[in-house]
């Protein structure tokens, strides 16, 4: 373990966490003072409708007001709110709080003039440009519900989200810029709308100079509609604390994404609280979060938390390596005076691979940096050690999910010191409002150090999902039905005898590729759509760089008997199908054609067993296996890396 902070500070934090569980009314009631309310909530927690919990009932606020207007009013008008640092276009642009407010109020006016009213949905499908942040906050300003779709998703994934969210307007861009290519967004958007039963009334398109999009009848040009002569700014619309701020779709096991609902009041309180109490960032300081606005980390810690805090946030349009080199993050920290940075372990592994001795890190002064936070996948001890050795600041693992919106477990940082000793491989202790329990299959709590299903006792704290978009039943079925009174996280792991949480990986079939959460179901659907495929399974296997990569096992239809050249073509076609149906981020490279898939007698494919064999682990073969010879035949393929 590394150095400890004073016992007093630790005890104070432990007491605060205990109070948040024993007396959520007083704990979260006090935290609510961090937010400017139009009407203060009557109380913190409404449990009348349990297991559907509501935070800050009766409260009325506007989240955009809290993120922008109040800082402008209180002396931060000229402070930089947002820096767009874009090595892929060779530009850097800064926006003060006053400038960002002006843009957001105008775009809110655009949306209002297009007929968007409180409760309407707006889908945002954009690369890492400031206009994405402007569009999100503009929705919040008029009480519309945004649903940001990650730019790396292909048309079918975008279509599924448009169909479920039923947006009145879609906001997009002509292109995104990847190091290897310019990605044309508009044709993908057009295809998605074509595929979707729901059609938006309008699309607002940001034309970028790298590629102009052809605009159709329903399309409007961002620049034209934002002309100050063409639009009057919109005022903030008061919303209820429990009104949705956004819906963010995430992957489950099936191909149908889950619409995670985020409320307004609970989220604003939890994020503002977390920024200072957990991440140690104060108003006026500069923070860099290297995620994407399409993921939950981007929503919470590129956009909402830093702006609710009155901090400066860096929106980075680039990669940890290759734009131009493995020193990109260190340059950002230096040039912008970043006090704390947040990224994914994959990004650190990519940097380490290209610059193992961290020579680029030593190029200049990184003294502004107090801590590096990492989340999105398990932080392996080797990566933690490398970052710790070279950065000389606390490297802090934190565990959370799209569903929770902010960390479940973290080691809080105070003035550049981790509050508790760091145990590599553990995101440390559960934070306020999270009652973490590890349960066995019967729902019994297991002893310290024993692995099981990591669950959270209900209610979960403010900011966590109140339900799934228009699907209370699916919310209950997916998360609450396994163990009465608990939320099932989907992660397996253990808690040690000092209360440290160790998250070892998903217990379901959700994939985590370079910190990107993907569903096996989506990939399998894409593969199954090929005319030669009878059935298939996708498993996530260990990868040195990306944590996990998908691997496909495919059974061909009877009578399909390609020769080696035909097999090669088939594999290429299947890889291309996943790329075009799910997206390049799925990074499927390996497809094995096999005779049969191992199943249980009830027909469930044994993905976990196959994954364990492929990763060289001891495989748990269920007694209900239908035909063990199928698994035996597959074992050399799985072990050998297949082909
Ligand atoms: N829009 C369009 N395409 C995208 C995209 C986007 N927003 N993001 C990624 N892609 C594409 C890439 O261009 C690449 O395409 P290619 O196969 O044609 O090269 C593919 O998706 C895979 O991209 P990526 O996952 O970035 O892998 P990589 O091998 O190019 O880079 C890393 C590896 C580690 C540098 C990269 O994965 C990374 O930066 N990871 C950190 C992820 C992260 O921060 N996650 C947030 C979790 S909190
Ligand atoms: P997402 O919803 O995309 O944020 O992905 C959430 C999933 O990522 C979790 O359920 C975990 O499986 C994994 N995850 C996120 N952070 C961590 C972490 N610090 N340690 C281990 N797994 C993590």
UniProtKB/TrEMBL annotation:
Gene3D superfamilies: 3.30.300.30, N-terminal domain of ligase-like. GO terms for molecular function: propionate-CoA ligase activity. Residues 72-459 form the AMP-dependent synthetase/ligase domain. Belongs to the ATP-dependent AMP-binding enzyme family. Residues 523-604 form the AMP-binding enzyme C-terminal domain. Residues 13-67 form the Acetyl-coenzyme A synthetase N-terminal domain. This is Propionyl-CoA synthetase. GO terms for cellular component: intracellular organelle lumen.
């Amino acid at each position: 373990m590394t150095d400890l902070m004073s016992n007093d500070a630790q005890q104070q934090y432990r007491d605060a966490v205990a109070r948040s569980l024993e007396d959520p009314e007083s704990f979260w009631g006090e935290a609510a003072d961090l937010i400017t309310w139009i009407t203060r909530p009557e109380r913190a927690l409404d449990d009348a409708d349990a297991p559907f919990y509501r935070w800050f009932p009766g409260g009325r606020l506007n989240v955009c007001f809290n993120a922008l207007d109040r800082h402008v009013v209180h002396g931060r008008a000229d402070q930089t709110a947002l820096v767009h640092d874009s090595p892929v276009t060779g530009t850097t642009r800064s926006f003060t709080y006053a400038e960002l407010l002006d843009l957001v109020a105008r775009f809110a006016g655009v949306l209002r003039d297009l007929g968007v009213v409180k409760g309407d949905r707006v889908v945002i499908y954009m690369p890492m440009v400031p206009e994405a942040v402007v569009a999100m906050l503009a929705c919040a300003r008029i009480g519309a519900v945004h649903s940001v779709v990650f730019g790396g998703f292909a048309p079918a994934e975008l279509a599924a989200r448009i169909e479920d969210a039923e947006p009145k307007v879609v906001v997009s861009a002509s292109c995104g810029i990847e190091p290897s290519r310019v990605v044309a967004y508009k044709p993908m958007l057009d295809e998605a709308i074509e595929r979707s039963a729901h059609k938006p009334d309008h699309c607002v398109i940001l034309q970028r100079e790298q590629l102009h999009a052809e605009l159709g009848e329903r399309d409007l040009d961002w620049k034209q509609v934002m002309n100050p002569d063409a639009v009057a700014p919109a005022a903030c619309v008061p919303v209820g604390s429990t009104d949705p701020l956004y819906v963010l779709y995430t992957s489950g096991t099936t191909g149908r994404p889950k619409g995670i609902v985020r409320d307004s009041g609970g989220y604003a309180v939890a994020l503002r609280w977390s920024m200072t109490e957990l991440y140690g960032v104060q108003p006026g300081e500069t923070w860099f979060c290297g995620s994407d606005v399409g993921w939950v980390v981007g929503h919470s810690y590129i956009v909402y938390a830093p702006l609710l805090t009155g901090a400066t946030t860096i929106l980075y349009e680039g990669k940890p390596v290759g734009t131009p080199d493995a020193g990109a993050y260190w340059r950002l920290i230096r040039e912008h005076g970043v006090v704390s940075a947040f990224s994914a372990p994959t990004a650190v592994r990519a940097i380490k691979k290209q610059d193992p001795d961290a020579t680029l890190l030593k190029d200049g002064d990184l003294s502004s940096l107090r801590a590096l936070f990492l989340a999105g996948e398990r932080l392996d001890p080797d990566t933690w050690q490398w970052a710790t050795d070279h950065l000389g600041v606390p490297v802090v693992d934190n565990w959370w999910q799209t569903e929770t919106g902010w960390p479940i477990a973290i080691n809080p940082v105070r003035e550049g010191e981790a509050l508790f000793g760091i145990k590599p491989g553990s995101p440390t202790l559960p934070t306020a409002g999270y009652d973490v329990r590890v349960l066995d299959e019967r729902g019994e709590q297991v002893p310290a150090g024993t692995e099981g299903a990591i669950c959270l006792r209900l209610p979960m704290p403010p900011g966590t999902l109140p339900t799934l978009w228009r699907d209370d039943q699916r919310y209950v079925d997916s998360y609450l039905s396994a163990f009465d009174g608990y939320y099932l996280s989907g992660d397996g792991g253990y808690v040690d005898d000092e209360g440290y949480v160790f998250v070892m990986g998903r217990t379901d079939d959700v994939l985590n590729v370079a910190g990107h959460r993907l569903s096996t179901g989506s990939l399998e659907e894409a593969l199954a759509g090929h005319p030669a495929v009878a059935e298939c399974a996708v498993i996530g296997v260990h990868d040195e760089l990306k944590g996990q990569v998908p691997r496909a096992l495919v059974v061909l239809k009877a009578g399909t008997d390609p020769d080696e050249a035909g097999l090669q073509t088939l594999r290429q076609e299947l890889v291309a199908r996943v790329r075009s149906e799910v997206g390049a981020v799925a990074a499927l490279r390996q497809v094995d054609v096999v005779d049969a898939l191992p199943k249980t007698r009830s027909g469930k494919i044994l993905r976990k067993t196959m994954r364990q064999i492929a990763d060289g682990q001891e495989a748990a073969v269920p007694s209900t296996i239908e035909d063990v010879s199928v698994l035996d035949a597959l074992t050399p393929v799985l072990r050998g890396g297949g082909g």
